[in-house]
Amino acid sequence: MGPADVLAHGVGGRQDLPLTPAQLAVGAALALVVSFVVLGVAWREPRLDPGAGRPVPAWLSRAAGGLAWPLRVAGILLAAVLLVQFTKPDDEHNPAAGLVYVLFWVGLVPLSLLLGPVWRRLNPLRAIVALIRRDGGRPLPAGLGYWPAAAGLFAFAWLELAAPDRATLPVFGAWLAVYAAAMLAGGLVYGTAWFDRGDAFEVLGDLVGRLAIVGRRPDGALVWRNPLDGIAGLTAAPGLVAVLAVLLGATFYDAMSGALFWLRFTQESGLPAPVTGTLGLLAVIGAVAAAYRTATRAAGRRGRASADRAPGELAHSIVPIAVGYVIAHYWSLFVLEGQRTVALLFGAEDFEVYSGIITPTGVANLQVTVIVLGHLVGTVLAHDRALRMFPRAQAVTGQLPLLGLMVVYTVAGLFLLFAG
Amino acid sequence: MSNARPTARAGLVLAALLAFAAACGDDPSPAAAPTTAAAAPQTSAPAAGPGSDAPSTPAATGSPVPSPPQAVNKDLVYTIAKRRANPPAGRVEVARGDVVRITVTSDEADQLHVHGYNTELALAAGQPGSITLTADRTGLFEVETHKSHLVLFQLVVR
């Protein structure tokens, strides 16, 4: 019962209360207002500059440089802590599932949002490759792009949301072993550059980390910067849209799996849960990707720019929407199960989770706020990029499909929190 | 600094929206408000006890060990026949602190599980079994059977 309870849907036996109809309506109305405010009052010349930023004090820059080895060692120690759990009994007192699904997977987003892409500094697999493969390896094939990361991200989402017995040590242990082997193989062939776009978790950390207030300018300087400038530096590459579709789609599916309509549908179907889970996950990711492709291509055409290039050029604007939704969906789980995991790690099995800050209205307010905030940032990013891509006369018309897309994503996300 | 002005403006818009969101968030549907108010003082009672080594309060008891008679606020009765539950899956809303009794009769031996409350009950074929629990944690919890993998209902505790 323990492991099953850790992972009722994704993670955690408890799910958040559904939004009330009033909260749903307020969130949806805000999303609409935000869209038209941005279109109406935001700047008329492109402003965002990925090269912007004010260098941090010299001592801080030096300290960050000196952390390279300590962080690598810390990453290897964290991996060792996880491995030790596999020697313990597979029961509800084993913190391994919480370590993987809550502290690592969910925690990666807030960690990167605060400190930038630090997982690449901690990643033990990258550290191993850096030690063995000192010559750098072969150059990556041009067409590969982010596709390995998209595949890895989907594989993890499938493990978390659809795999049978996914909270048991043998299942996620086997997954992690296969994943590590694949990443090491990629690293041994292509050197550490493989991880930049091949490792799902490093890619996620990099995408989210671009929204941090601290980051590296293209010239390598560590700077304080406007997060909008940071994320605007994300350049189109093969597979980038797929990574974002998987991230957003998987989180939508996780919310949907708790909805009554989905529950009834799956129980009526009589199919085994892993089958309906896999199909549902694929369907939602497919729907997210299809909506994105349709809207961005339409924007490209209406804006008299290239319909083929538009999806890649606008991909960065989906990052804040996905981040907002991930935080909204997993916040209470991270707080509650995160505490429990840390307590179990230190052997405090009868630890009472402090749940004072998880109040029903508090969680709902936070959910609506971060989702609308993600929508606002995404809309501003799409607006600025549209000004760059489209001729002046078409800038507004070209943006309309993008606004429509973002309103659809945001309202769909809120609806799933209402229904699920 | 050509960037300063629009950034400041975006910041202003953002601040205004957040204030709006916060203001709206404070008055949800009128029905929800009293429940929340009632739940607030209770939050601290069981949770805040860093010094007190209160034994982990048994939130639920299976039928074999009846706790002192409690007033049951919500009495739920389900039957499972041929891997179908009756009534079909739905949501049951209760207020925090309510006492909920779940009685299930299954045509085959099974295990009843209330997620989040970590309560389990072995069901013998054809014999009604019941769980009584105090809904002292807010959230949404699925009540399901482990062998037939049926979600009987979602318990919504506000």
Task: Provide a brief overview of the structure.
The complex is a heterodimer of chains A (420) and B (158). By secondary structure, chain A is mainly alpha-helical.
Discrete helix count of chain A: 20
Residue ranges of chain A: pLDDT <50 for 5 or more in a row? 1-11
Helix proportion of residues of chain A, in percent?
Answer: 55-70%
Total number of helices of chain B: 2
Distance from first to last alpha carbon of chain B:
50 Å
User: Could you tell me the strand content of chain A as a percent range?
Assistant: under 5%
Low-confidence stretches of chain B: 1-8, 17-65
Oligomeric description of these chains: heterodimer
Overall pLDDT of chain A: 92
| String of helices and strands of chain B | HHEEEEEEEEEE
Helix/strand order of chain A: HEHEHHHHHHHHHHEEHHHHHHHH
Radius of gyration of chain B: 22 Å
State the total count of DSSP E strands of chain B.
10
Biggest interface between protein chains, with counts per chain?
A: A-B, 55 and 54 residues
Structure description:
- The complex is a heterodimer of chains A (420) and B (158).
- Chain A has 420 residues and is mainly α.
- Chain A has 20 helices and 4 strands.
- In chain A, 68% of the residues lie in helices and 2% in strands.
- A 3-stranded antiparallel sheet of chain A has the order 2-4-3, with no helix packed on it.
- In chain A, strand 3 and strand 4 form a beta hairpin.
- In chain A, helix 16 runs antiparallel to helix 20.
- The two termini of chain A are 23 Å apart.
- The N terminus of chain A is likely disordered.
- The radius of gyration of chain B is 22 Å and the shape is globular.
- Chain B has 2 helices and 10 strands, in the order H-H-E-E-E-E-E-E-E-E-E-E.
- The longest helix of chain B is centred in the first third of the chain and has 23 residues.
- With 158 residues, chain B is of the alpha+beta class.
- Helices cover 25% and strands 36% of the residues of chain B.
- At the A-B interface, strand 1, helix 2, helix 15 and helix 19 of A face helix 1, helix 2, strand 9 and strand 10 of B.
- Strand 1 of chain A pairs antiparallel with strand 9 of chain B.
